[in-house]
Design brief:
alpha/beta, 19% strand, Rossmann fold, 8-stranded mixed beta sheet, 10 strands
Length: 278
């Protein structure tokens, strides 16, 4: 079968540069066009992730954020503009994607990720991406992804630095990397934290790359490794990450959990106990 026949002429033109890469053919592009990715957070990381997934032709992108665009966001959150100030971030991001690639379907969820809603938000997606700026939200996304059997691409930035990795159902999860939220001395206060403008772009691009690799089944995903970036000296450090046998969620001695509704969290999203299946 002639692979080009699987794409329309405009699609072959739009995605022609990636189709010239050895190992990526029109059938792979059709895979991207039929894929569905959920991006949780539409700030600095989310801006970079969303625009490159849309540019690459990921057919459906769900975006979750309960925030509104502020002037201080514009220094790094590049899908938003001055005209968007005051608008919901999900609406601003949807307009950006529509202008970049009108063929992409955007599903907007103007809400905060919570244990009560996470499983429903993740349902039907091939990959979920962490573009959050808080630990509690990451734990909720991680837990829902583990229970749903969905790959989870993590990313975080602070100052000049950032990190990213991939969690898959048969590997370590976020709680293996960070068993519980840091103590109060290790958590940034409610005051705005410093972020170098390009740091989220760097990490977000890496996250988008990992998402595309997962969807296409190419290369070696970052599963089992944490990639740290320091913009001050342009260095990357790749360290192994193994499953924690004492992990309360994915460890071999962990409880059997069918739904987040059976998980009891404390006020910082640590698992206190869970209802085992009968």
């Amino acid at each position: 079968m002639d692979g080009d026949s699987t794409l329309e002429p405009r699609q072959r033109d739009r995605y022609s540069r990636q189709l010239l890469i050895e190992g990526i053919d029109p059938a792979d592009q059709r895979t991207l066009l039929s894929s569905c990715v959920l991006v949780v957070g539409v700030g600095g990381l989310g801006s970079s992730i969303i625009q490159y997934l849309a540019a690459a032709g990921v057919g459906t992108i769900g975006i979750v954020d309960d925030g509104r665009v502020k002037r201080s966001n514009l220094q790094r959150q590049v899908v938003h503009t001055v005209d968007d100030i005051g608008d919901p971030k999900v609406d601003s991001a949807a307009r950006f994607v529509d202008a970049l690639n009108p063929a992409i379907d955007i599903e907007t969820h103007e809400t905060r990720i919570e244990p009560s809603s996470a499983e429903a938000l993740l349902e039907g997606h091939d990959v979920v991406v962490d573009a959050l700026d808080n630990f509690v939200g990451r734990f909720v996304v991680n837990d829902a992804a583990v229970l749903a059997g969905i790959p989870f691409v993590h990313g975080a930035v602070y100052g000049f630095e950032g990190q990213t990795t991939v969690f898959r159902p048969d590997g370590p999860c976020y709680r293996c990397l960070l068993p519980e939220p840091p103590g109060e001395e290790g958590i940034p206060s409610d005051e705005p934290m410093g972020v170098f403008p390009t740091a989220p772009g760097t990490i977000g691009c890496l996250q988008a790359t990992e998402v595309l690799k997962l969807l296409l089944g190419i290369g070696e995903p970052l599963e089992g490794h944490l990639l740290r970036y320091d913009g001050t000296d342009a260095t990357f450090l790749r360290t192994p990450l193994k499953r924690d046998p004492d992990c309360p969620l994915c460890g071999p001695n962990g409880p059997e959990i069918e739904s987040l509704e059976t998980v009891a969290y404390d006020d910082r999203c640590r698992i206190e106990r869970s209802a085992s299946t009968e």
